[in-house]
Amino acid sequence: MRNTLALLTVTFLILFAVGCDHENDNPTITPENKAPEIITTGSGFYIIQPGAMTTLTCRAVDDDGDSLIYRWTADAGHFPDGAQSKSTRWTAPNNIGDYEITVTVSDGELKDENSVQVVVSSDGSFGEVDFAIGFDDLSMAMVWISPDCFMMGTLDTNTVKEWGEEQAVEEGIDPDSIDVYVEKYLSDYMAENYIDLDAKNDEFPRHNVALQNGFWIGKYEVTQELWEAVTDTNPSMFTGLHNPVDNVSWIDISVFIDTLNSRNPEVGWRLPSESEWEYACRAGNDSMRYPWGNDSTYSRVEYYAISGHYNGVGSHAEVGSRLANDWGIHDMLGNVWEWVEDKRHDHYRGAPDDGSAWLSGDARYRMMRGGSWYDSPQQCRSTQRNSGATGLRYQTVGFRLVRSGPAPIY
Known about the structure:
Blueprint lengths: L1 H18 L2 H4 L11 E7 L3 E2 L4 E9 L7 E6 L12 E5 L5 E10 L4 E10 L7 E5 L6 E7 L3 E4 L4 H14 L7 H15 L14 E4 L4 E4 L5 H8 L18 H14 L10 H9 L18 H4 L3 H4 L25 E7 L21 E5 L15 E5 L7 E2 L3 E3 L6
Parallel strand pairs: 2-7, 13-16
Antiparallel strand pairs: 1-3, 3-5, 4-6, 6-7, 8-9, 9-12, 10-11, 12-17, 13-14, 14-15
Helix pairs in contact: 3-4
């Protein structure tokens, strides 16, 4: 009897233990792996000359946090820097035609794919060209900017009202009715044309600039890698070899440029003039607040600019992390403010109209352009201006370089 009871007790305990095995009742569910998603894919240039080079950029996300593998393929041309990174370069073939370049992004199991169309034409852009800086075998990718005319600054409502008053006089409007006429003229004008209401007084008056000479401009802001190679220092508050150097003053940059030119006296490295900077930033679009359009809802800012509103990281990012403008130049807006050559002026009255720097005025202050990672999209507009003392160093301020011609020949 005792043996029977003991056997029943053991059996009960075993059954009880099995019944309490929650892991068996609720087996662990392995979450489903999600495929990476390509957000944007682009080329620095979409129409280039035979043999020219362009940078391809892919921005992708993975909700699982997996490391991503990039692979670029093309039916012609070649990838001089390799084809397995989120940003790479493609050299066009010598044959004219339309070419498709495909990028595949994988987490090792699942993938996403997208493509870019690039036209190779004798009428295309010169693309980008590498120039040696004379230190550590490093080079700087630069883009040729051909001279032309453009409208610099922002159109203000007062100017439009002046147009309305002139037209009212021409039409013989009764003086007592001119104010009403002008307000209607302004309303009608704004209904058909864009006026940037975020513009500041120092962006006025809008004026024509006829650049007399073409120039090369850095495809990217000067990186910490380049700064370290030349100076053996890195003053940046946020470090990263391929991030823009920050915390550098206008005076620091002048010394940096002098050092570069001591190795390359025939080159003539320099800062851009303010008008050269805005011309290159706008990339042929001088009637919109951004190179990509007016974007009043800021829905496309994150595709092109590292700005405080979208970044969420609290610092600048690697140069070229966002899409280039239509002339193949990255980060003209956002990432870091960029020093230019011009002395500070709070308006454009009397500004040079030939593309040269405005060098009259108070030498203690210089202009900077473009906004930064810290600034809102409203402060990262093509026409937004800023200035600082020549000795100012700050974590939101960097620069890019230009050099004079000649234009490339293929």
